[in-house]
Specification:
344 residues; alpha/beta; Nucleotidyltransferase, domain 5; 2 domains; five-stranded mixed beta sheet; 12 strands; 20% strand; globular
Length: 344
Amino acid sequence: MRLLAIESSCDETSAAIIEDSSVRSVVISSQIKIHAEYGGVVPELATREHLANLQPVVREALVQAGFAASELNAICATQGPGLPPALMIGWKAAQSMAFALKVPMIGVNHVEAHLYSPWFQGDPPRAYWEGFQPNISLVISGGHTLLAQVNHPLDHAIIGSTQDDAAGECFDKCAKLLRLGYPGGPIMDRLATQGNPEAYTFARPMLNQDNHDFSFSGLKTSVRYFLEKHPELVEDDVALPDLCASIQAAIVEVLVKKTIRVARRQRLGCITLSGGVACNTGLRKAFQQACEKHELNLQVAPLNLCTDNAAMVGLLGERYLQKAIPTNNWQADIRPSWRLTEPA
């Protein structure tokens, strides 16, 4: 089985070649520098970049894998969720290739690809379904923060989600208040390693509520009000790392405690962590310490599969084929608001 995967849900144009559950190549064209000027992703600019970059990215992925397009057995692409015009570029290109080659066309849910990415390990990454354990999975990114109970591969149920801002969104918005630049989350993480996480106290919304949901808008608001009273701290080289560490500590504490709580309540011995925010070093360290304390296994997505990429899309798409999930997608449309609770 040789499969081409395409990812274009937001601001990364990516293609990957999967052969027999192993990634043979993955190419990513990032747009961070383009959107940095605007402090966030501009959908029209993202779409133009996808148009310019998709063909070269796909061609390079084939060259690195040593395959011709005629040797592919299937095509898959992110069908949703994501920015509609950005999704459309990758989806229509994948449909065209699948139709021309007369091979199956698979639509993959972007968040579901993140959900299972902790089971794609190694260099090059490979799907290790045989090592799968029932788990509580935390998916955290700029647009998504959710908890899922995963009983078997492709058998999952969403048990908690954010009621407003996602964790990554909170990181970026707070970083913007601190004038750290874009994307702010990684900058805040780097500065937080130099600061005192107990220097300032910020809200921990819904931490003690008896549910599995999250809310981060209140934390963002508490940071904004605090900085309105103490604007001088943003320019203080000593205070700034302390602010970053304190904000990060508030976000991390909520994520860790609520995830550990539900894992123990459901009597599941494994937690998985994935999505762009899973790159955060403070978050990884806190989860490792908490899981060791409670004797839980922690499975974290590799750093190169945390951010948006076609490798995770392709490995999940291959699983769809193995399980004979319908692949008649030559005429299907994108699904910008595709929820994990909705069928493929």
